Amino acid sequence: MSANNRISSGITTTEAPWVRKLLITVALLWLALFLLLPLVSVFTEALRKGWETYLAAFDDPNTWAAIRLTLLAAVISVPLNLVFGVAAAWAIARFDFHGKSLLLTLIDLPFAVSPVIAGLIYVLVFGLQGWFGEWLSDHDIKVIFAVPGIVLATLFVTFPFVARELIPLMQAQGKEEEEAAIVLGASAWQMFWRVTLPNIKWGLLYGVILSNARAMGEFGAVSVVSGHIRGLTNTLPLHVEVLYNEYNHVAAFACASVLAMLALVTLALKTFVEWKVQQNIELSREQASE
């Protein structure tokens, strides 16, 4: 059988069956060892002393304070990153301007910079000995070792996700439909709400899901700016570390199980969005072929 015939008949590889089975087995074992086993161990350790002990771990007011702070940081940072991501993607995908490459580089900066370094930067800028430290102290404004610093650190580590999902999507879609809407008399807002947003909604949701997952699970940058004040500036990941260091393992794993469940929900939503995106791509291909 020729190469063309193999491709047309759906055969895209020439490896022996045992090679494919070996590769699949290695991949599954790797996932089981480094993904499923840790996940199972978290829930096993959390429930090791029974449901009563597990639920008792959430009677601690500091645990609920950590959960509330984690949710607060996500609720503030994710919508702000959504607005920034849409604006940045629209500017980069639709316009040519000086500094476009620089903007793309800055968007990717949190991927290149360690979160711990990002936290240290905020300490140098807003800390008591930082650039604005004296002015903030004179006006009784606390950023470092307070909620604003945690929100800023969370914003930094999460802001690329929405923009990075939308930029290639909007570049691939082009701007013909938007230009047609303008020619037909639509205003800029009408064009955005009726043309742009429906076309990018699944990519936008995908970026929001990833941004939210990173916001709730961030440790490094938040650890530097929080001060680890129990009940005040400890997010849930930091609270897990404190409990574990105190040898309160059941409570630590109980709190960690909450983060694990959030990760599983995020994975389910991510899978659903990917499926919807794939459906839209296939529908667009069918419409184009017709």
Please characterize this protein's 3D structure:
The protein is 79% helix and 0% strand. With 290 residues, the chain is an all-alpha fold. Helix 7 (115-126) crosses helix 9 and helix 9 runs antiparallel to helix 13. The longest helix has 41 residues, at 249-289. The chain is globular. The model is unreliable at 1-11 (pLDDT under 50).
Task: Bin the strand percentage.
Answer: under 5%
So what's the overall shape? globular
Element order, helices and strands? HHHHHHHHHHHHHHH
Unreliable sequence segments:
1-11
Give the integer mean of the pLDDT values.
86
Per DSSP, the total helix count is: 15
Terminal CA distance: 32 Å
Main sheet makeup: none
Please count the beta strands (DSSP E, at least 2 residues each).
0
Q: What characteristics describe this protein?
A:
290 residues
Gist of the model:
The chain has helices at residues 3-8, 17-46, 51-56, 61-94, 100-107, 109-112, 115-126, 133-138, 147-158, 160-173, 176-183, 188-217, 220-226, 236-245, 249-289. With 290 residues, it is mainly α.
Topology:
Blueprint (H helix, E strand, L loop, with lengths): L2 H6 L8 H30 L4 H6 L4 H34 L5 H8 L1 H4 L2 H12 L6 H6 L8 H12 L1 H14 L2 H8 L4 H30 L2 H7 L9 H10 L3 H41 L1
